[in-house]
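Marked as duplicate of an earlier ticket. Keeping the data here for the record.
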Amino acid sequence: MKKIIIAIGILAFCLAGLLTYKIVQKFNRNKIIAKEKQALPVFQFYDQDLQKFSATQLQSNVPVCIFYYNAECEHCDYEAKEIRKHIRAFEKAQVVMVSTNIPKETAQFINAHQLKDYAFITWLYDKEYNFYKWFGKSVTPSVYIYNEQHELVKEYTGEVKISAVLKYLDHEK
């Protein structure tokens, strides 16, 4: 009986050590991602034709606004409606819409919100679920706003009013 208690104690100690190691490792990785995303990460996703699209394909000296969304999310739906309502305010920025939705679902989302004919909006498919590698743990919706030098100026997790986003894309400042 005493040997069983000792074995359980050793096992519990080992599990606690392993969990502590994993937590510290994840904490350190999150710190690295937080630091790296201060400049626009060199991400790679897919366009709607399943061709690779990299951050290097974005224009330089133009602000970038990345929306991480899901076509089935009611909060993302609200933000898309608000983007459409204030579409002219986004004309001098690059809007990058990233989702894990397949292109067919994205096409339905684009059509439902009448966001098809805007050259400054890029629709990307996170086919391999890699968004977290460049931007850390993110919920849908999330918004990342980068200035003309592609430096992070603001990050929102969860639903946000478009007026708050536009405040950081104001080109007159």
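See parent ticket for discussion. The chain is about 40% helix and 20% strand.
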